[in-house]
Design a protein that fits this description.
Elements: E1 8-17, E2 20-30, E3 35-39, H1 46-53, E4 61-66, H2 71-79, E5 82-85, H3 97-107, H4 112-125, H5 141-152, E6 159-163, H6 171-186, E7 190-194, H7 198-204, E8 207-212, E9 215-220, H8 222-229, E10 233-238, H9 247-250, E11 256-259, E12 264-268, H10 271-280, E13 287-292, H11 295-303
Parallel strand pairs: 3-7, 3-8, 5-6, 6-7
Antiparallel strand pairs: 1-2, 1-4, 8-9, 10-12, 10-13, 11-12
């Protein structure tokens, strides 16, 4: 779908490394003010796409505009209006929390007075005000991640690129970061996020694409994708390790039946009704669970359950 008002617009975008095509002709529109997600297994092409959008890797073919400009011609002008949160924190651990913001702000040619005022604002936003004069090294992983995000905002970016923003964090730190990112979006900052956490994508993303093998295999809001590729509920049945799974007895009870090594998944509109019908057929699982369908169900259906190194 063409969106000429898009903040990021790609048409048949390609990235090659020698003979290998990491990105194979994708079309993407990211609208101003939305949170847009790239999901996919390792090697799907997410990071290669993000690097092209971030003006640090040239495209091999196709069209790409960011903030209405060409990254290969206008890279410095685009980067001045971008914020980037890399997958791995690259803070200067020998400086204090506040000094990390001051030094980074000077890279953008901002005045010392502006950077000082902005740093104080961002420390409050990231809930790091009490640690402002502490060195970075002793900070927790969640605090370092919040500082990395705060640093990426020093130039008041219109577009913020976040690569796996909460990888390795505990649930409390993840939820605090989600809150900070939601506030950013509410303030008008456009977010582009790559993540392996399906619950994160459901929480943060207005729209997303699922990539696999360098191509886009699905696009839509989380709710749209769940409605399109899954069912309202999923029934999980587990059986004793030495028992044969009764797939034949369950045939026809659900829209789709998936056999996993440790359990059976039955996709249906009403999981409890399917469970009752299974019991009526004499199926007695070791345990059962009815849950709502999630983006993870969609992701695994589209990209497979095989481990990708």
């Amino acid at each position: 779908m063409v969106d000429d008002g898009a903040l990021v617009r790609a048409r048949q975008l390609v990235k090659r490394f020698g003979e290998f095509a990491a990105v194979r002709g994708i079309d993407v529109d990211v609208r101003r003010g939305e949170a847009f997600g790239f999901l996919g297994p390792n090697g799907a092409g997410k990071s290669s796409t993000m690097r092209m959008v971030g003006c640090v890797s040239p495209r091999s073919d196709g069209e790409l505009t960011v903030l209405g400009m060409d990254p290969q011609r206008d890279g410095p002008a685009i980067r001045a209006r971008l914020g980037v949160v890399p997958q791995q924190d690259n803070l200067d651990t020998e400086l204090t929390v506040r000094q990390n913001l001051h030094v980074y702000g000077r890279f953008f040619g901002l005045s010392k007075a502006h950077v000082r005022a902005k740093a104080t604002e961002l420390l409050d936003f990231a809930q790091l005000g009490e640690r402002a004069d502490d060195e970075v090294e002793p900070l927790s992983g969640g605090m370092k991640r919040r500082l990395t995000i705060a640093r990426s905002l020093i130039n008041d970016p219109e577009l913020l690129l976040l690569d796996e923003p909460t990888t390795g964090l505990d649930p409390q730190a993840r939820h605090l970061l989600w809150d900070r990112l939601f506030r950013l979006k509410q303030s008008g900052v456009t977010l582009i996020i790559t993540t392996h956490y399906m619950d994160e994508a459901e929480q943060l993303c207005d729209r997303l694409v699922v990539m696999d093998g360098g191509r886009i295999v699905a696009e839509g809001s989380p709710a749209e994708l769940i409605g399109r590729y899954s069912t309202r509920e999923v029934l999980e049945l587990r059986f004793p390790p030495d028992a044969a799974a009764p797939e034949v007895a369950l045939e026809g009870l659900a829209d789709r039946l998936e056999v996993l090594p440790d359990r059976l998944l039955l996709y249906a509109a009403d999981g409890e009704a399917v469970l009752a019908a299974a019991h009526a057929r004499g199926v007695q699982p070791l345990s059962s669970l009815v849950r709502r369908s999630t983006l993870e169900d969609v992701f695994l259906r589209l990209t497979g359950r095989t481990l990708v190194d």
